User: Which sequence fits this backbone?
């Protein structure tokens, strides 16, 4: 009796070890696990009952109290860690501490992925040594929607996949959405998001830019051209073309958005007529004006826009920080509108005139401001721009000055169906007006939110709501350039001198104590 009961605690430990081993192998609680645990508890309980006098004495010792406190503390810490792990396993928390948010998706990328109607499959053909960065990036997309699936494929060991998707280069991404496939060879967020746009949209929408009135050229890559704007529109799956209105009987039916950018000469009467007819067919128009140039007032006033004969002045210190002059307002105020919802970027307008919504537009038209300058006395609409600007009461327009506005109106149409029957339908004609055209030229397009505001306005006109957001930015190049002497200095200080100093100090202290 005395001999075998001494082995009960050992048997309990062996049974617990057996339980842990079975759980580790099967990754679940099996019948064997529960049986081993039950026998272990029973063995330990029997031992405690048979040796209750010894156990009672042992419990009353100081070492047991200290030991039990330590065990209790360990159990509490393990419990807290387990709880944290349990919560972390069910909720995905990520923090991006980089200045440019290199490891976070832009609002537009997130919005696009969340709008997936069915599964999107991405196959990334990358060699093993290049797979981790693309895996991290695609995981960010996958975290936004369960419909975003991705697979990393080593092209050297999967020739069948390479042949199937006709892969010609390493680092190629294939996006499959329904029956559409898009391939790209750049694995950056802007490229992936633009590929998403192309693969998700059915067909392309067409944007026409008017010409022959002194407008800037679409293919001009100089500071005053529109090359950047055109490139970005194409990246968002638009076709871009020019149109000389006077040559047409009507604006083409495939025109999703008609653009009039900074005309230096006024439009002809028949061109105004074409635009009116186009808007009456629920057309979409964007007009970008400049001070002291044609203001298209005959057209725009009927849509609720008041075009000012002024140049907006902003003397607030915020604009001066960026080197902007008084006639280049830096805008941070965007009234609530679908175009500017959640828009939190600065925009810069160089020589801009006021565009103010009228208080009582025509029946059926709603018009609202999109962007405003700072409050008076920091900004106003100057009617007589000279080298020394000052506000003239009764002549100038007090700030905040509206410099962009949008209007829309429901239009009843007769739509012809597939069986040649005509049915009544209601669509919205939309007009957006900016008091400046320079902000979308090459010299200003990439300043902060200029390009985003323009593209948001185009997408609102073309009813591409899922594209209205802040777009992904390219990572900034923050490399430090060092001379050979500077590199050597850093090497000797960081790699040799400091570790060697610590070693010598340690040896000296050791010898001194000895």
Assistant:
């Amino acid at each position: 009796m005395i001999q075998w009961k001494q082995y009960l605690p050992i048997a309990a430990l062996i049974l617990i070890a057996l339980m842990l081993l079975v759980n580790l192998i099967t990754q679940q609680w099996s019948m064997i696990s529960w049986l081993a645990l039950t026998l272990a508890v029973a063995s330990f309980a029997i031992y405690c009952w048979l040796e209750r006098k010894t156990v009672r004495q042992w419990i009353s010792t100081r070492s047991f109290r200290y030991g039990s406190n330590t065990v209790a503390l360990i159990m509490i810490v393990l419990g807290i860690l387990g709880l944290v792990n349990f919560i972390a396993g069910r909720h995905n928390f990520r923090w991006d501490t980089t200045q440019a948010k290199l490891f976070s998706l832009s609002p537009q990328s997130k919005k696009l992925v969340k709008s997936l109607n069915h599964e999107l499959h991405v196959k990334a053909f990358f060699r093993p040594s290049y797979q981790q960065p693309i895996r991290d990036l695609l995981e960010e997309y996958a975290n936004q929607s369960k419909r975003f699936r991705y697979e990393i494929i080593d092209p050297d060991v999967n020739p069948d996949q390479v042949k199937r998707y006709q892969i010609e280069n390493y680092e190629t991404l294939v996006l499959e959405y329904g029956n559409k496939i898009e391939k790209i060879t750049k694995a950056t967020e802007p490229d992936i998001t633009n590929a998403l746009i192309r693969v998700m949209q059915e067909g392309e929408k067409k944007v026409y830019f008017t010409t022959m009135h002194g407008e800037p050229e679409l293919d001009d890559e100089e500071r005053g051209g529109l090359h950047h704007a055109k490139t970005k529109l194409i990246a968002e799956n638009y076709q871009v073309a020019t149109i000389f209105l006077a040559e047409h009987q009507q604006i083409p039916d495939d025109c999703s958005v008609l653009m009039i950018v900074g005309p230096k000469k006024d439009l002809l009467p028949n061109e105004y007529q074409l635009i009116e007819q186009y808007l009456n067919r629920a057309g979409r128009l964007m007009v970008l004006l400049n001070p002291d140039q044609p203001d298209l007032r005959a057209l725009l006033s009927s849509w609720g826009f008041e075009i000012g004969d002024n140049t907006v002045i902003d003397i607030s210190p915020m604009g001066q920080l960026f080197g902007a002059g008084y006639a280049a307002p830096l805008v941070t105020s965007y009234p609530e509108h679908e175009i500017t919802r959640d828009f939190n970027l600065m925009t810069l307008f160089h020589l801009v005139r006021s565009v103010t919504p009228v208080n009582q537009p025509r029946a059926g038209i709603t018009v609202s401001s999109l962007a405003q300058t700072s409050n008076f006395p920091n900004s106003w609409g100057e009617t007589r721009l000279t080298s020394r600007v000052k506000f003239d009461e009764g002549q100038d327009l007090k700030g905040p000055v509206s410099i962009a506005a949008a209007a829309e109106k429901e239009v009843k149409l007769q739509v012809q169906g597939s069986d040649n029957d005509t049915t009544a339908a209601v669509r919205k004609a939309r007009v957006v007006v900016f008091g400046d055209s320079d902000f979308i030229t090459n010299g200003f397009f990439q300043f902060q939110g200029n390009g985003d505001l323009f593209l948001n306005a185009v997408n609102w006109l073309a009813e591409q709501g899922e594209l209205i957001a802040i777009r992904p930015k390219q990572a900034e190049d923050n490399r430090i350039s060092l001379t050979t002497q500077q590199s050597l200095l850093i090497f000797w200080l960081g790699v040799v001198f400091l570790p060697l100093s610590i070693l010598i100090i340690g040896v000296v202290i050791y010898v001194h104590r000895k």
